[in-house]
Amino acid sequence: MTRVNPDLAKELEKFGAKTVTVCFNCGNCTAVCPLSESSVAFPRKLIRYLQLGLEQKILESVEPWLCYYCGECSETCPRQADPGELMMSLRRYLTSRYDWTGLSKRLYTSKVWKIFSVGFLFFATLAIIYRFHGPIVTEHTELETFAPAEIVHPAGYAFGTVLAILILSNIYRMHKYIMKGVNAPFSLYISELKTLIVHFATQARLRLCGNKSMWWKHWLLMSGYTVAFILVQIDYPLGEIFGEYPSLTNYPFPPPWHPVKIAWTYSMGAMLIATTIFIIERIRKKDPAHKYSHSTDWMFLILLWCTVFTGLLVRIFMELDMPIPTYYTFALHLAFTVPLLGLEVPFTKWSHLAYRPFALYFVRVKERALQARQQPQEEES
Fold first, then answer.
1. Which residue segments constitute the domains of the chain, with CATH numbers given?
2. Burial (Cβ within 10 Å: 0-12, 13-18, ≥19) of residue 226
């Protein structure tokens, strides 16, 4: 039995879907979309589900995650229904449904919650640094003395573990929706891991979109973040082995050609360039994908830009051996980092980077499981 939620379209308005009733289902958006296929036809099908209030159908769909919002559908829509933004709104809605804590929905639908959550984590981080920082050395920059690695790194690992548990538990809920009614053997999940890895690392489907510049901008951002994530994981083990923490170090500093310093420079440069481009595009509003910006889009971009920029300033002040600016800027850097990761990774925009490849992974496993089920039936007939 299919249940209908008559208030679904109204609920989606809170997530940015303002033009649901404008669409008259002509199918033009599906015809022009380079990613739409017979098995996963969108945006038309999802918009129709939304108009009819077929909530369960939407929850079980992967199509919102297969859309990269290149804007071709919105640009050619004869009714200006903005199907690209409707798909983006569905991604926000699905993110809130995967999240078992309910915080995602509050962040997407309430500006008060966004401001309060960011402000609370920002000032709480500054308060913790003020209470627990080490001695302030002013003769030379000694960042490791001010922020001892044996405290900062374990705290970071604990924080990262909590975030990993949250996002993985949400992905599990996503899996239950997508795989409903299909029991796939564990061997299929193992054999299809390559699908997850390839799409996570390359965002390959994005290259099929008409706007070719989208791929390299997203890849620049993704590669910069991935490099930073890896460096954070190896910094503490390297320090334990070699007695040197490239991220938190005391004077004299490692030379510019130190491999970790080169990697950090690339990471910060890649993320800062990509984020700045995205901010400028949203201000100009020239292309369809950036004509409308949800408040969480701005929250993500501003937090990310401030995090990367303050991290870059820390590096500059360290090289110039300016102790006080280094310590203060590092405190600000952490204060921006905590709400960025704590809110964006499990609850809003940053989580999409995980949901997309996992959606492709689950749909591939589902397809193979259904094929295996049909094969014996065909042989019997």
1. 8-98 (1.10.1060.10), 103-369 (no CATH)
2. middle
